[in-house]
Amino acid sequence: MDLGLRGRKAIVCASSRGLGKGCAMALAEAGCDLVINGRNEATLTATAEEIRDRFQVSVTTVVADVSTAEGQKTLLAACPTPDILVNNNGGPPRRDYTELDRPSMLDGVVQNMVTPIELIQAVLPTMMDQGFGRIVNITSLSVKMPIEGLDLSSGARAGLTAFLAGVARQIAGSGVTVNNILPGKMDTDRLKGGFERSAAASGKSIDQVRAEQAAEIPTGRFGTAEEFGQTCAFLCSVHAGYMTGQNVLLDGGLYPAAF
Prior knowledge:
Number of strands: 7
Structural class: alpha/beta
Largest sheet: 7 strands, parallel
Distance between the termini: 28 Å
Low-confidence stretches: none
Shape: globular
């Protein structure tokens, strides 16, 4: 399917690896020129070279923490008028709610709620003026289904979801859409870290923990960054202009609900 994105400009936050990289790869495949972002220069550079080699698109790298004002300024200076913004950021570490103090709670809200809102505020005027814009926010299945130890991440991302639900509808007539993708258990480094913690706590092998967790998912497997990215690319496409304010679950059926 031609997504109608060739020559469009996209900012993909936290895209040197994992789900962000999957989104960057899919948008590059659709013909977008990219600004990608990460904190590790070597990893980010390698990702940029891989994308350029595979898809022959322009890729600009920005080494920065997008949660900071300076990081956002640098990112937007590299692409002042994006057609597409994919919001992504690392979540707070898994931690019981009793262990959270005020600074860690505020940091979590800044990372996963305030930062994407600030970036959206920055890019919306141009998107609305040009009559086209696509904003996709990577949130989490935990917005809908509680996951032990991820209360801070869940709360911040749920706050973002509620905030943008009204915004999406307020700007819908301008040709700009705002949607969220809610990943379940995706085969990323973050998930692998969870296997290691579970194995250490239970005495089971990592392979055993992995197999048990995969078996809990109706599809019987974990999701991939590649299929996640393709979902993101479709939401950014010309074919998704009538789809806004939506939460798209990508979880292999793990969330047990009919609606």
